[in-house]
Fold this protein.
Amino acid sequence: MRSNVTREDLDRVIDYLRQNDPRLTQGDNVREFEKEWSDWLGVRFSVFVNSGSSANFLTMAAFREIFGIGEVIVPTLTWPSDITSVMFNDCQPRFVDINRRNLCMDVSSVLELIGENTKAVFMTHCQGFNGLNRLLLETLSEKRIVLLEDVCEAHGATFDNQKLGTFGKISNFSFYYAHHMTTIEGGMISTNDESIYEILRMYRSHGMVREACSREVRSRYQTDYPQLNPEFIFAYPGYNVRSNEISAIIGRSQLSRLDADNEKRRENIRIFLDHLDDSKYQVDFDLDGNSNYAFPLILNEPDFSLRDRLEAVLRVNDIEFRRGSAGGGNQLRQPYLKSIVEEEMFSEFPNVEHIHFFGYYIANIPDMTVDEIFELCSILEKL
Ligand SMILES: Cc1ncc(COP(=O)(O)O)c(C=O)c1O
């Protein structure tokens, strides 16, 4: 991956630092970034935090406050915090296999798994692909099951011409280095629900009541707890996952070119898939509404010797790659889940197993040239 921070982003930070005594902790730039992000996404509220993982943790904390505990359906191909956030909040993760065409949760498996105790579906829009369809949205709404969206890998992707991250009750984004845009480290939580927004704001800052925007919320606590210093009432068992002004300035600068960068990445992946050797690699991805910061490279066949040769060729040609796709492949194989996952379970999830052993991604960088993409495809074809 290549750093997406430009000279212009850095100059904006430097300009800001030239002032006497610039504020560095969370302030006006954070507020403005949240507002600009909400406008860009098309939601009412956003909360800027220090990582996408923090966005996941706060999402599940707010979810538990409002909806209580229960089962949450999660993917087997995702980032660990999508699963640990469920566990840390006393909910039970229930796992489903992925759909090979979009790497997201297989919708029919989700529908099969829905039961009496299902409280939520925490969808990860993996690697820039959309994981939603009408049937899923209608079923969840009919059964009053909450949709949470992890859009950490899919900024700007859409379903039915509407941005991902606007369908769920709460949605999450990451701004880590290699994603569509970066704030060095950072994440965003978005929602249209004002009471969830207030809880998220408090959870972000130690659970503190003075972080709530609503005067009514603040005065309710002050009236109920007259013996507490009104500036230091801790309503929730919160965290400190705030970000800072420098990250927000970079974020605001990056956001102004996100759409243009995404368009370029979209063109890149089409060229890549059009020229990739389909006798060896999967090319039939569902590109409807996609926004990929990486090229998926998945062997058609489970062939270990081809896989070893592929890795050797990529290394020799100095092409950075990641095996297992998002988050280190099949999460069920990761030691952090050992206490709740039996080894025999792996075979129940053949699609994610294939990605685990034979799936890769390679950077899709906006300023990549067409010739670089052709060269990449030709190296992969010669294998
Ligand atoms: C799907 C998904 N969710 C959450 C995260 C966590 O984001 P962060 O690295 O900003 O903590 C990532 C990380 O890349 C991710 O890919």
Observations:
- Residues 51-53, 56, 78-79, 81-82, 124, 150, 152-153, 174, 176, 187, 326-327 surround pyridoxal-5'-phosphate (CB under 6 Å).
- The two ends are 23 Å apart (CA to CA).
- The mean pLDDT is 97.
- The longest strand covers residues 118-124.
